[in-house]
Design a protein that fits this description.
Layout (H helix, E strand, L loop, with lengths): L2 H7 L2 E6 L3 H5 L2 H9 L1 E5 L2 H9 L5 H7 L6 H26 L7 E4 L8 H15 L4 E6 L4 H10 L4 E6 L2 H20 L8 E6 L1 H6 L12 H17 L2 H8 L6 E5 L12 H5 L5 E5 L1 H10 L13 H10 L4 H37 L1
Parallel strand pairs: 1-2, 1-8, 3-4, 4-5, 5-6, 6-7, 7-8
Length: 361
Amino acid sequence: MKATQKLHDLGQSLWLDNITRDLLTTGTLKGYIDELSVTGLTSNPTIFEHAIKNSSAYDSAIRKKLQKDKTAEELFFELALEDITQAADLFRPISEKTDGVDGWVSLEVSPLLAHDTQSTLAAARALHARARRPNVFIKIPGTKEGLPAIEEAIFAGVPVNVTLLFSREQYVDTADAYLRGIERRIEAGLNPNVASVASVFVSRWDTAVKGKIPDTLRNQLGIAVAKSTYKAYVQFLSSPRWKRAFNSGARPQRLLWASTGTKDPTASDVLYIRSLAAPLTVNTMPEATLNAWAEHGDFGPFLPEDGGNCEGVLREFSNVGIDVLKLAAQLQEEGASSFVKSWNELMTVISVRSEDLAKAS
């Protein structure tokens, strides 16, 4: 039995952190589903920028749309929705088998809207309506401006993947926004079963402090933050407030580990997979990490529900001058800026490709 199936059987969902048209048309994604227990997929502007820039697989679709005088953004969302809906159809049997718990794919609103609550909400509702698939998450960043949009989207019945979370505190704010939306649905007599995941980025912590800490603390900060967040997650699901919503038909907003590819070439290529195993969670992996885990994944203990030694480790980082709360805010802002950069590059790639194809036709 492959390590991917073992992890799935222990209760953690394995999602692929990638999408390209070639993955879909060559049957590679279907193979990951059948052979590596992959039960979902995430995307982001960087992933799409790389997919379109580094492949001719989209040229035919772009060429067909050239005569419709679309902006680069309009053209992108048409291309992205084609990929996302095709992937959603592949995962639909899993969605139906798990009654909507698993089998999700994610599409992000424009990162240019990260600090615009109303525009984010409008874009989320529009994208979900255009997808016309019950198993499509709309990704909304968990920024201060994103939190009201998350609440309103959940209240409107839009499934949300909250992205760009980096700390326990950011997760708790997100969980609260999610639950407020659910509670409002219950009060309004609406079905409270609106799915959501909260995506906590892990490896970027260790990249951020590289060269600023003793070697004894190397590659420990991301895992310590994850343990601290998992403790808050378990506490949230044990709270009387959540249990009241659960009794009314709500389902948990699952915790999702993102950015789980190992950046340090001297560390294990499955470091964050082995360290973040826990039931009722999701781990979304880059392709290389997924394949590495399938080949030589080795299990450690599950994440401790009480956070284990996380507070002690976090104190060690504080003692060497790392302000975790300040760094979490910085990482979220940098993450949002990185997606904006990728988005602008993506728009340029689409515009240039469209011009080249128009000249060649």
